[in-house]
Predict the 3D structure of the following.
Amino acid sequence: MPCSQSVSADVARRGTKQVFNALAAALLLAAPLAHALESDRKQPIEIEADQGELDQKNRSTTFSGNVSIKQGTLNIRAASVHVVRSDDGQQTMKATGSPVRFGQTLDGGKGTVSGEASQVDYSSATNVVRLSGNAKVTRGGDKAEGAVITYNTRTEVYTVSGSKPASGKGGKRVSVVIQPDSMGSRGK
């Protein structure tokens, strides 16, 4: 293999890890509900898209067109994923779709967690994941829905917000369903 192809493959591999690290952090949204399979972290990352671009000068990576990211049981689907790394190593990620969807199997036979939103943003500087546009997160029978769901990975605080009223009409309220079994097991 010519040297330029080897270097390109290494750069692409680092860009792929950059994308996955930001997306994996975004999926920490599910972490307080239950832990994802530990073995997933040891699996290879597989990314498929219609197009991919790595901009070394601006430290950004973009995948677009039917983006599929898999690692073990983790599965993310989006129309576009854009990741930028700053000079100080902080990352921002923006995934868009109609909608962006994710799912993962949880440890201990606790089922799966899944979610969707029109857009998912993550900033490692603020440790905030933001799902916006018909945001939904489901684990078993537990469900949260709203215009926006934010999760701070440092403070482990969720916020579910409804939509603002549109010209004289009422906004959409948030909806949260917590199953009785889930409430009892949270205190243990």
Summary: The domain at 39-177 is CATH 2.60.450.10 (lipopolysaccharide transport protein A fold). The radius of gyration is 18 Å. Residues 10 and 113 are 33 Å apart (CA to CA). The longest strand covers residues 91-105.
